[in-house]
Amino acid sequence: MCGISAVTGSEDIVAILYESILNLEYRGYDSCGLGVVGNGNVTVRKNTGGVEEVNRKEHLTKLKGKTGIAHTRWATHGKVSRENAHPHNSADGQFSIVHNGIINNYEDLRDELMAQGVVFKSETDTEVMAHLLEKTFQETGDIEQAFIQSVKRLEGSFAFCMVSARSQQTIYCVRQGSPLVLGLGTKSNFVASDVNAFLQHTRKALVLEDGEYATVTPDSVTVRKTADGSLVSRKPIRIEWDAETSRKGGYAHYMLKEIFEQPQTIRNALAATQEGVERIASQIRERRDTYMMGVGTTHYVAQAGQYFFSSLAGKYLPVVSSDEFVDLAVVGPQDMVMAISQSGETYDTRRGIAHAKDQGARTASIVNVMGSSLSMSTDEVIMQGSGPEICVVSTKAALAQMVILLRLALETGLQEGTLAAEQYDESYSHLKALPDTVTAVLNERSGFVRNLADKTVGYRNWLMLGRGIYYPMALEAALKLKEITYLHVEGMAAGFLKHGTLALVDEEMMSFFLVPTPEEKELNQHTISAIEEVKARKGPVIGIAFENDKRALKLLDHAIELPPTPPLVAPLLELVVAQLFSYFSALKLGRSIDKPRNLAKSVTVG
Ligand code: F6R
Questions:
Q1: Where are the domains positioned within the chain?
Q2: Distance 603 CA to ligand 1 centre (A)
Q3: Which of 87, 129, 522, 599 is deepest in the core (most CB within 10 A)?
Q4: What pTM, to 2 d.p., does this model score?
Q5: Over 122-186, what HEC string results?
Q6: Alpha carbon of 377 to ligand 1 centroid (Å)
Q7: Is 2 in the active site?
Q8: Atom of ligand 1 lying closest to residue 397 CA
Q9: Which fold has domain 3-246?
Q10: Cβ < 6 Å from ligand 1: which residues?
């Protein structure tokens, strides 16, 4: 959603603070600002636009100071405007805050403050906190008390960082439902929504938990419980990601870089905890039901997982999108709920897990971001180790999650006896060979994929079609294409097409098929029938097919040809190619690929 950051150090920290919100920009990018303490007040500069654009308008980097806060916004309450951008100051200019999350009772608090004569400058829920701080400080005369007492008046899910002209070198921060991590440096300390903000400076991090607040100076960090002020002692963790991985490294866009990193993310997913995989697999066997849950891309990842478990382990695992989970899933103590999430912070998924826990279910997760809420709150966790995913749309993280689900399904099949040891070994060898195949396909087919995207990008309406395991791949491919090109793309099961949607097919509706390998005889045959149905209605057809599939290659107007590939991993390879096709289509259209309009990487509000 939004990115918040704060830095305090023994030297000027403005360049570091500015860089920190550049690194967090993928969390939100409609406006941003910096607030720096000095000369008896907090100087705030902010405006609408991305971080570099605001810097050009407001000269953020010309500020000077040793302590400051920063914010990059994805609007929730109030339009995108300079007034609504953060930081927000109290009326006396003594307190300045940045906020991520939502304050549910802000209207009541706003009415109460207005009745006391406070004049609001913005439409945000955040601003109430700035004024509450000033009022509470007038009563208590103590900044920490003012901070905590103000926080206690707020209902909702939020994280705040606050600085004050009255305490020039201290950051006050609190976590209540939105992520917040402290970075422990030498002669400087950091607070941020996620570790990408400060990875260049330190990999030592302390993750705040919900209901905790911290006071941070250049050489000290104190964490306490918000409820009673009691001290919390927690060991810092070491973040294994390196700063270089979170830079673009010569690629035009993070999305392209992340697509090309996939051979390595597959290797990392294969190296993730085998004990964890075995434990979760045995739980899947023991539990009445294991629900899988994710939303957006991770919902499609979970759907792909469903096919893996059905085909390899003979087990049907229910999948419910996180946003519908509470209203639909029927879970109890005999069940397990497994969440899939890149960020580990997605509101809907966290809510689903909280609901599962309330019902007494066991919980598990597959997560990328270390120290994230889901990774810390589920009974079992598999860290997928994909490294920072900066592009707002997910590519490498999703593929790695699918690899982990394949591992889980293979392990469950082995334990269950639906897979013999030799079948398991053979399948595993196909997984191990996948990184090299992905590398070869990316290197050899990118030019063709780009040419095809250039040729077809004029079509405004698209169907993305697949059958069996290629169906969730088609759903995910459709999401990729629509979110970065803004074209209308519908993902659909190829067999479903003739039951209604075929009515839309004409010369102007492009159909993109994910064709199974010829070895998957029935699936392949049924998909080819669907291609024929579209062609018979004069619909243009393109797609991805394998070199040894003469029939599909003959039928498709244009085909991206892939080398013969074992059926177990063929759908994953096709997904990589579909990601690349989306990328080149968006490139041709001149879209904002890494930060598509209206989206945010980490959706931490409901
Ligand atoms: C789409 C995309 C989103 C996320 C979804 C869940 O490309 O990235 O649909 O998959 O918002 O996010 P995480 O995985 O962080 O829980």
A1: 3-246, 248-419, 439-593
A2: 8
A3: 87
A4: 0.84
A5: CCCCCHHHHHHHHHHHHHHCCHHHHHHHHHHCCCEEEEEEEEECCEEEEEEEEEEECCCEEEECC
A6: 19
A7: yes
A8: 14
A9: Glutamine Phosphoribosylpyrophosphate, subunit 1, domain 1 (3.60.20)
A10: 295-298, 341-343, 346, 349, 393-394, 479, 483, 602-603
